[in-house]
Amino acid sequence: MSASGFPRPLPSVEGDAAPYWRALREERIELPQCDPCGRFVFPPRPFCPRCHGAALSWKEMTGRGRVYTFSIVHRATHPWFLDKTPYVYAIVELDEGVRFPTTIVGCAPGEVCVGQVVEPVFERVDDEATLLFFRPTGS
């Protein structure tokens, strides 16, 4: 619970994305990659959205990336976030080309910029859920 008194909203860690969530619990990032066309599939699903192929192999990502775009959130979208604003909602593009919606942590919102190099931060919420955030690397 946050200071607002509401439970934290959490994703479902089951279904097609279960291997993704399992890897996050181990502080790794894994995504399915389409065997025929090579596209990484995010969010995870049982087929490739580009070629509709169902032959997918799970691959580990480096976790390195850059801020592709971002916005500073000043109004909470859920009561749990009331005492968390302002925070930075961003799209991070990993070196492998996959773009992740995320929150940038470890710095003031005004310190974030497009192109900034970031690294993953894994926040264990409970035995099932580990969330993925990113923080600036300083380089």
Write up this protein.
The protein is mainly beta. The protein folds into 2 domains: 12-60, no CATH class; 63-139, Beta Barrel (OB fold (Dihydrolipoamide Acetyltransferase, E2P)), CATH 2.40.50. It contains 1 helix and 7 strands; from the N terminus they run αβββββββ. The chain has a 5-stranded antiparallel beta sheet with strand order 5-4-3-6-7. A two-stranded antiparallel sheet has the order 1-2. A hairpin with a 5-residue loop joins β6 and β7. It is globular, with a radius of gyration of 16 Å.
List keywords for this structure.
five-stranded antiparallel beta sheet; 1 helix; 139 residues; OB fold (Dihydrolipoamide Acetyltransferase, E2P); 6% helix; two-stranded antiparallel sheet; 35% strand; mainly beta
Number of strands: 7
Could you report the average pLDDT, rounded to the nearest whole number?
92
Q: Could you describe the largest sheet, including whether it forms a barrel? A: 5 strands, antiparallel
Which sequence of SSEs, written as H and E, runs from N to C? Answer: HEEEEEEE
Query: What is the name of the CATH topology of the largest domain?
Result: OB fold (Dihydrolipoamide Acetyltransferase, E2P)
Tell me the span between the first and last alpha carbons.
34 Å
Number of domains: 2
CATH class of the largest domain: Mainly Beta
Alpha-beta classification: mainly beta
Secondary structure: helix percent = under 10%
The fraction of residues assigned to DSSP E strands is 25-35%
Radius of gyration: 16 Å
User: What is the 3D shape?
Assistant: globular
